[in-house]
Specification:
- With 217 residues, the chain is an alpha/beta fold.
- It contains 9 helices and 6 strands, in the order E-H-H-H-H-H-E-H-E-H-E-H-E-E-H.
- A 6-stranded parallel beta sheet has the order 3-2-1-4-5-6.
- Strand 2, helix 6 and strand 3 form a beta-alpha-beta unit.
Length: 217
């Protein structure tokens, strides 16, 4: 590897699938407010901040609330979500993730997390993956959400590498756009129809190898 010095990973959908727990927590909140919240509704919340997600949920239920009540409900949703997160374990790591992280370490390629989640540290601890990361940038460190590249640029800075020396792994269109806006290479995890702007698209980290990474060099 001449030019690739670091790999930066999104968390949800790349390393672990916590989307199901978000959905359950939002659905519980909606039911408490007297309406249903479907999987189709949940699609509207992907890659969206907690407060914006709440606004979307309330609009589905036709409910208007003041800001204090919104903050109370957003906190309640997160508390419910955390109850599920606290039960997570290494068995929920997505296939191939740990193996690929180990390959990167052997190749002396630096590793960072770039996630909008404010619970990223807790999730990594539950998965027993914290030790694999040289830097962690999460929702507690950034002011701007993806597709703004702030989270990845901070990761590169913490690793001490140039953005052009980084490859980002992302499962969301906004994340791919953030990587490209930051001047980084990007591997999309998921569908090429959605993530077509990425330099390479694979089904998951179980389909990645140091050889494929080298194609981006």
């Amino acid at each position: 590897m001449k030019n690739i010095k670091a790999c930066l990973f999104d968390l949800d959908g790349v390393i672990v699938d916590t989307a199901k727990y978000h959905y359950i927590a939002w659905k519980e909140l909606a039911n408490e407010l007297g309406f249903d919240f479907t999987l189709e509704d949940n699609e509207k919340l992907k890659g969206v901040s907690r407060m914006t997600s709440l606004d979307i949920l309330l609009s589905i239920g036709g409910i208007e609330l003041d800001e204090d009540k919104k903050l109370e409900l957003a906190t309640k949703k997160n508390d419910n979500y955390l109850q599920y997160i606290l039960k997570m374990g290494p068995e929920e790591i997505l296939p191939g993730t740990k193996e690929f992280l180990e390959v990167l370490r052997k190749e002396h390629i630096k590793i960072a997390l770039g996630s909008a989640s404010k619970n990223a540290m807790l999730i990594l601890e539950r998965l027993e993956l914290t030790g694999y990361f040289d830097a962690i940038v999460d929702g507690t460190h950034v002011a701007k959400a993806k597709p703004d590249p702030e989270v990845f640029l901070q990761g590169a800075e913490k690793l001490g590498v140039a953005p052009t020396e980084c490859v980002v792994f992302e499962d969301a269109e906004a994340g791919v756009e953030a990587a490209l806006a930051g001047g980084m290479k990007c591997v999309g995890i998921g569908s090429s129809e959605v993530l077509g702007k990425a330099h390479l698209v694979v089904d998951g980290l179980h389909k990645m190898s140091i050889q494929k990474l080298g194609l981006l060099d």
